[in-house]
Design brief:
9 strands; Rossmann fold; two-stranded parallel sheet; alpha/beta; single chain; disordered N terminus; about 375 residues
C-alpha cells in the first residue's frame, strides 16, 4: 500500500471519528447504534436496529445517513409494501416492445450505495424474499442474467422481530443486530429534553473513501492467539445452547473476521487484538433475550477488565433498584455510597461505558443529597 493511500485512509478514519462525535452529541446514549452503523459501512454487514417505538432508532440512522455523500435509498414499509417498493416495477416499454420483464431499477435498492429500510418486518413476505439475493451476494438475477449491484450496506429498523419461520433466511442476513434501549439516566433524559442539539458537522463520507478503507481493513492481520480466543467464545456459546447460523459463523470466525478487523482499523492498528472481539456482541445472538448472555461471554473472555468493571457496576445497580432511595435507611444509603466509591476508582471507572458512568455518578449524587438533607433536619 502506497504512502498516499495510507494518508488518504488516515484522513478517512479521522473523518469517521468527527462524524461519530457529531452524531453522539446530537443523540443521547446511542453510541452502540452509531458504532454498529460505522462497522456496517466498513464491512458490508447489514444492520438491524431493534427497539420499542420512540427510542430514536430511525432518527439516529437518518442523521448518520446525512453525513454520507453517496446515492441513498430509503423506504418505510407497511403491510401493503411489496417487492416493487424495493426493486422497482417492471419496465413497461421494454415489456411491451419485447415481452421481457426487466425491472426499472433506477432509484431503488438495486441502484444505491446505502439503503435504509424502516419497519423492515412490516412489509409482505415477498418484499423480504426479494431482498435475499441483493443482501447475501450484492447481486440481482432476472431473465437468466446476474448483475452486481453497488450496495455497500443496508440499515434497517424495527419495533419487533419476525414471528414467522419463513423470515429466518432474511433475518440471518441482518448480521449486525443492535438492541436500542430507552435512555437509562435522568441526566440523559434531561439532556434529551432540554439540551440544545448542536448542528451537524460538515464532514461527508464518500463511496470512494469507504472502499479505500475496506481495502486497508482487509490487510489487518488476525493472529492465531486471537483466532483461538474466537473459537473459545463460540464453544462456550454452544454449551449454553446459543446457536449461530453457518453464514454468520464463517464471517465471524473465518480468515477475514471483518468486524474485528474494522474495529482494529478504527483504532489505528494493523493487527487484531483480543479486545477488538467485543464487537461480536453485535452479531452473535438471534434472540434479544440472548444478547446479554452473549455480551457477558465475550466480555469475560476477551476483555476481562471491562467484564469485571461491568460486574461491579451491576452490583451497585441491583442494590440501587432494591427500593427507592427515599425508603432506604441511613445504613443502606451508606452501604450504597461505599459500593459506588469502589466503582468510581480509576481502575474500574475507566472501563465502564458512558451510560454506566453517568448512572454511577447520578446514584452517588442522589444518595449523598438524601443523607445531607436528613442530617440537616
Amino acid at each position: 500500500m502506497t504512502n498516499a493511500t495510507i494518508s488518504t485512509t488516515e484522513e478517512t478514519r479521522k473523518k469517521i471519528f468527527r462524524i461519530m462525535s457529531s452524531v453522539n452529541l446530537r443523540w443521547v446514549e446511542r453510541e452502540d447504534l452509531l458504532k454498529g452503523l460505522v462497522l456496517s459501512l466498513l464491512t458490508g454487514s447489514d444492520l438491524l436496529a431493534i427497539g420499542r417505538p420512540g427510542c430514536a432508532k430511525s432518527a439516529v440512522i437518518k442523521d448518520f445517513l446525512a453525513h454520507l455523500s453517496m446515492k441513498k435509498f430509503s423506504r418505510q414499509l407497511n403491510q401493503f409494501s411489496t417487492d416493487k417498493d424495493l426493486l422497482g416495477d417492471i419496465n413497461p416499454k421494454i415489456f411491451l416492445d419485447t415481452g421481457v420483464r426487466i425491472h426499472a431499477s433506477s432509484n431503488t435498492l438495486l441502484d444505491c450505495d446505502v439503503a435504509f429500510i424502516d419497519e423492515v418486518f412490516k412489509g409482505t413476505k415477498g418484499a423480504r424474499a426479494a431482498m435475499l439475493e441483493p443482501l447475501a451476494d450484492r447481486q440481482f438475477s432476472e431473465n437468466g442474467d446476474t448483475e452486481d449491484i453497488p450496495l455497500l450496506s443496508m440499515f434497517s429498523a424495527s419495533n419487533e422481530l419476525p414471528g414467522d419461520v419463513a423470515d429466518a433466511a432474511f433475518y440471518s442476513r441482518l448480521q449486525l443486530r443492535i438492541v436500542v434501549n430507552d435512555i437509562g439516566t435522568s441526566v440523559g433524559i434531561g439532556q434529551a429534553l432540554w439540551g440544545v442539539q448542536p448542528a451537524r458537522c460538515s464532514d461527508r463520507l464518500t463511496r470512494e473513501e469507504v472502499l479505500s478503507a475496506r481495502e486497508e481493513i482487509e490487510q489487518v492481520t488476525f493472529p492465531d492467539a486471537v483466532r483461538k480466543k474466537c473459537h473459545a467464545v463460540f464453544e462456550e456459546m454452544q454449551e449454553l445452547g446459543i446457536k449461530l447460523d453457518q453464514r454468520k459463523r464463517m464471517k465471524a470466525f473465518g480468515v477475514r473476521c471483518s468486524l474485528a478487523q474494522a474495529e482494529a482499523w478504527l483504532n489505528g492498528r494493523t493487527e487484531v487484538r483480543i479486545e477488538d472481539l467485543r464487537v461480536a456482541t453485535m452479531t452473535f445472538w438471534s434472540k434479544p433475550s440472548h444478547e446479554r448472555e452473549v455480551r457477558n461471554i465475550i466480555m469475560k473472555t476477551c476483555t476481562p477488565k471491562m467484564s469485571s468493571a461491568a460486574d461491579k457496576f451491576n452490583e451497585v445497580h441491583e442494590y440501587y433498584n432494591m427500593k427507592p432511595l427515599g425508603q432506604m435507611d441511613d445504613d443502606q444509603l451508606t452501604k450504597l455510597l461505599v459500593m459506588v466509591k469502589g466503582v468510581r476508582t480509576p481502575n474500574i471507572f475507566r472501563h465502564l461505558t458512558m451510560t454506566q458512568r453517568n448512572l454511577t455518578t447520578e446514584i452517588s449524587e442522589k444518595a449523598a443529597a438524601i443523607i445531607l438533607q436528613r442530617n440537616k433536619s
